[in-house]
């Protein structure tokens, strides 16, 4: 983690813990310029409206973080403020016509602006999985954060960060669907376990048949079981028109013997399976 950056990164507050008060100023909205390093690419209009309604009723509970910028002009110096964190709050405030917003002014170095903005965004719960993974990737590649350091910031394990980054390996068509909330993170995790040349085909099947994550897992497990049994036991495999009753399959192979164990959901499933292959 870049030296000195940790002190500026927003922390998750714990119950019973108090922090020292920082000076809060009210700054004109038109003097605050957007953050050029904003990692968030899309803002949900409905959510912004909800936030605007909340601000109108309760005010802005968490001040924006800005950086003071002085520009030389013919008449002297012009003061502006560059937004570091809080773009949703600023947009919502503009929607309801607020003239001024509460801010905390920090002397942030230019090289620290992007990581601070990234960290503030990934601590939010409403980022989509692609935006979140993209933020993780930038922190790692451009600012030398480790998976463990990011995990500490967002309250997750190193393994969780590594797994979250894998979603970026999916084809662009699938990632776009996740961004637009047409596909869930659960679906994405299942698709990551499938060979790349089959991901798009299964993805389209999910959309066409409106498959839930559970439906998808069952469908894929059934196909895997069918393929394994057909490859290892050709004669038995021919009788498997459908094997949806099979919950799991275990194949044990040694130098001298081979064994097949089929695990069923219940007795009814077993009986149905036996009737189909004429063992009863």
Structure, briefly:
The chain is of the alpha/beta class and 280 residues long.
Describe the model.
This protein has 12 helices and 7 strands. With 280 residues, the chain is of the alpha/beta class. The chain has 3 domains: 103 residues, Conserved hypothetical protein from pyrococcus furiosus pfu- 392566-001, ParB domain (Alpha-Beta Complex); 42 residues, no CATH class; 53 residues, no CATH class. Strand 3 and strand 4 form a beta hairpin. The longest helix is centred in the last third of the chain and has 20 residues. About 5% of the residues have low confidence.
What's the CATH first level of the largest domain? Alpha Beta
> Radius of gyration, rounded?
27 Å
Main sheet: which strands, in order across? 1-5-3-4-2
CATH arch. level architecture of the largest domain? Alpha-Beta Complex
SSE topology sketch:
Layout: E1 25-28, E2 32-33, H1 45-58, E3 64-73, E4 76-85, H2 87-95, E5 100-105, H3 110-122, H4 129-143, H5 147-154, H6 158-165, H7 172-179, H8 185-192, H9 196-209, H10 213-232, H11 234-237, E6 246-253, E7 258-264, H12 267-276
Parallel strand pairs: 2-4, 3-5
Antiparallel strand pairs: 1-5, 3-4, 6-7
Quick tags:
single chain, 280 residues, alpha/beta, Conserved hypothetical protein from pyrococcus furiosus pfu- 392566-001, ParB domain, 3 domains, two-stranded antiparallel sheet, 12 helices, 7 strands, 47% helix, elongated
